[in-house]
């Protein structure tokens, strides 16, 4: 079981998430549902958290997403504020962070409440909330984590732990393989310490592995060749401190760059690399947004096996529409999202409700294909 995990998250008023709570999250979690049911909105919420706490650019994130009004369920006239509460588990106990964002002129958010607390696993009662200011534009918990006399009334250690835990939650989406995709850019060779959420710095990451962890690098190449039989190895060569993603075929001496590589292959390169990185190059919580996009069924099976294996070390949350990928999760690890009257509803499945089907060797993917994950099983 991973050392630190998200135990639960409750989101109210963010896009279609009028009031959604996902609790008792396992180490491997699959979010499934129809198009528009809210899976991507959950991913965007965690992306917003990253902007809030990693770079303190909530305002920029909101502007890029169309403004604060577009982030609120039904707009600010229906929902004047959004709020959230996240519970994180560590070996020592429960860390909780909550905030409320109110709509303000000109179409932006201000914090109307921000609080956190830590409850020791062996203490019989929950700790009291520690409240920060209100009326600010960016998260104050980052400043509180750095201490200082202004925040003498709160515990900077607890704030620091929560900030670091939430900063170590990364959403990965490798969908953009267009001509202007980050995959097709040259990258500084120094940017290989962690794969970015869009996968664009893949060449820099592979270069680091080839130089410092050649065994892992060779495993990645071998896994890729299982799906692309003509794939031999990557050809990552430094040019004035930059590297470009390139690879060599077994059948010719020609070197293929990203513009000559299929969209599905680029995504597969990124996924296989991500799921085989050493623990120190990975966040504690990995969120994957529809990783099956453009992949061959055999490739999806390989990715599913890698997710299953990595979930022993890291918590992984996957939003997917692939029955093949769902087969790598137990029913107790699957959360179904439905859209009712414009609101996302979320419920966790239970193996007990489908016991007869499972005894007849139906898989979770089979049950989904048969549309048995409706309101009444």
Instruction: Report the top-level CATH class of the domain at 1-168 and 330-377.
Output: Alpha Beta
Helix content: 25-40%
- The end-to-end distance, rounded to whole angstroms, is 30 Å
Q: Unreliable segments (pLDDT under 50, ≥5 consecutive)?
A: none
Q: Trace the largest sheet across and list its strands.
A: 2-1-4-5-6-7
**What quaternary form is this?**
single chain
Given the C-alpha coordinates, what overall shape results?
A: globular
Q: Largest sheet at a glance?
A: 6 strands, antiparallel
Report on the structure:
There is one protein chain. With 377 residues, the chain is an alpha+beta fold. It has a domain at 1-168 and 330-377: Rossmann fold (3-Layer(aba) Sandwich). Helix content is 29%, strand content 25%. It has twelve helices and 17 strands. It has helices spanning 39-54, 58-64, 68-71, 141-145, 156-167, 202-212, 214-227, 263-274, 297-310, 323-326, 355-359, 364-369; strands at 5-12, 20-22, 28-33, 81-89, 93-104, 108-120, 130-131, 169-172, 187-188, 231-234, 242-243, 247-249, 255-256, 285-289, 315-319, 334-340, 343-348. The protein has a six-stranded antiparallel beta sheet, covered by helices on one side. Strand 4 and strand 5 form a beta hairpin. Helix 1 (39-54) packs antiparallel against helix 2, helix 6 crosses helix 7 (214-227) and helix 7 runs antiparallel to helix 8. It is globular, with a radius of gyration of 22 Å. The mean pLDDT is 94.
């Amino acid at each position: 079981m991973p050392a630190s995990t998200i135990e639960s998250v409750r989101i109210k008023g963010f896009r279609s998430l009028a009031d959604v709570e996902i609790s008792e999250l396992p180490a491997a979690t699959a979010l499934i549902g129809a198009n528009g049911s809210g899976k991507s909105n959950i991913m965007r919420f965690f992306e917003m958290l990253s902007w809030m706490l990693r770079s303190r650019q909530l305002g920029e994130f909101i502007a890029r997403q169309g403004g604060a009004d577009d982030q609120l369920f039904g707009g600010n006239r229906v929902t004047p504020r959004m709020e959230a509460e996240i519970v994180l588990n560590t070996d020592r106990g429960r860390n909780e962070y909550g905030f409320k964002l109110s709509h303000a002129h000109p179409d932006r958010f201000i914090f109307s409440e921000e609080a956190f607390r830590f409850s020791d696993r062996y203490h019989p009662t929950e700790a009291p909330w520690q409240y920060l200011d209100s009326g600010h534009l960016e998260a104050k918990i980052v400043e509180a984590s750095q201490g200082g006399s202004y925040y003498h009334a709160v515990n900077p250690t607890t704030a620091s732990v929560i900030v670091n835990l939430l900063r170590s939650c990364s959403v990965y989406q490798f969908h953009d393989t267009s001509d202007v995709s980050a995959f097709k850019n040259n990258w500084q060779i120094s940017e290989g310490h962690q794969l970015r959420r869009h996968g664009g710095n893949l060449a820099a990451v592979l270069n680091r592995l080839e130089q410092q962890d050649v065994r892992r690098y060779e495993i990645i190449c071998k896994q890729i060749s299982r799906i692309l039989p003509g794939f031999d190895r990557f050809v990552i060569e430094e040019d004035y401190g930059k590297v470009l993603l390139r690879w060599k075929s077994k059948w010719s001496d020609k070197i293929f760059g990203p513009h000559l590589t299929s969209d599905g292959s680029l995504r597969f390169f990124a996924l296989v690399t991500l799921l085989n990185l050493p623990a120190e190059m990975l966040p504690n919580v990995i969120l994957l947004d529809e990783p099956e996009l453009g992949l061959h069924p055999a490739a999806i099976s390989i990715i599913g096996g890698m997710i299953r294996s990595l979930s022993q070390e890291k918590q992984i949350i996957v939003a997917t529409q692939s029955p093949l990928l769902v087969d790598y999760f137990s029913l107790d690890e699957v959360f179904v999202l439905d859209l009712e009257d414009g609101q996302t509803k979320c419920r966790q499945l239970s193996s007990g409700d489908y016991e007869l089907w499972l005894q007849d060797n139906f898989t979770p993917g089979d049950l989904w294909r048969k549309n048995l994950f409706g309101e009444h099983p």
